[in-house]
Design goal:
By secondary structure, the chain is of the alpha/beta class. Helices cover 34% and strands 21% of the residues. Bound molecules: 5-O-phosphono-beta-D-ribofuranosylamine (GRF).
Length: 204
């Protein structure tokens, strides 16, 4: 028996986001450049106007609008069950959260155990929650970063997979700092996915 890690080509990714989609764009660029052996099988968003859905359409990837429902921070259990079953039909290896602004609950966690990952704009466990770059500025720390982590039922609390450090410069504003963190995200997310795709980092 070989001791080499099992290689799975291409890794099937289902991406969820609520906003601009710059992380999805970075992932697609890595796939198109041939550095990430993966395929984005569907993109879902709870914001029908989100740029991430337009990026999906531009790449002829199935773009799914998730009904917003009555709460801002979570889907109803029924809506999340419907989302889980929509995603399961694509047989994804990983659910990739890229700026998805809702808490993940039992229907998704139970359908995809340890298969949901997220990018967060701080060095977790520091600064979980919203606008983590502003939290870092207010705390007057000199360094922050971004984290890729598995998703559990808590707020940005699942096991950490990888982090990249980002310096905070003396004249940083909220915008300049967030932009620098996003550049790090755009390096780190495709790299972590490449490690899963190559078997270098085994899927649980
Ligand atoms: C990223 O900064 C990510 O850390 C946070 O939401 C933002 C999403 O940006 N969770 P984009 O939609 O990928 O441009």
């Amino acid at each position: 028996m070989s001791s080499q890690p099992q290689t799975k080509h291409p890794l099937r990714l289902a991406v969820l986001g609520s906003g601009r989609g710059s992380n999805l764009r970075a992932i697609l660029e890595a796939i198109n450049a041939g550095t990430l052996p993966a395929t984005v099988v569907t993109v879902g968003s709870d914001n029908p106007q989100a740029g991430i859905l337009q990026i999906a359409r531009d790449h002829r990837i199935p773009a799914h609008s998730i009904p917003e429902g009555p709460f801002k921070t979570k889907l109803t259990p029924e809506a999340e069950s419907a989302l889980a079953s929509y995603l399961a039909d694509f047989k994804p290896d990983l659910i990739v959260l890229a700026g998805y602004m809702r808490m993940i609950k039992a229907p998704l966690l139970e359908t995809f155990p340890q298969r949901i990952i997220n990018v967060h704009p701080s060095l977790l466990p520091a600064f979980p929650g919203l606008a983590a770059w502003e939290q870092a500025l207010q705390a007057k720390v000199t360094e922050t970063g971004c984290t890729i982590h598995f998703v559990d039922s808590g707020m940005d609390s699942g096991p950490i997979i990888a982090q990249e450090r980002v310096p905070i410069l003396p004249h940083d504003t909220s915008e300049t700092l967030h932009a620098r963190i996003q550049l790090a995200e755009h390096r780190l997310y495709p790299e972590v996915l490449r490690q899963f795709a190559s078997g270098q980092r085994p899927l649980p």
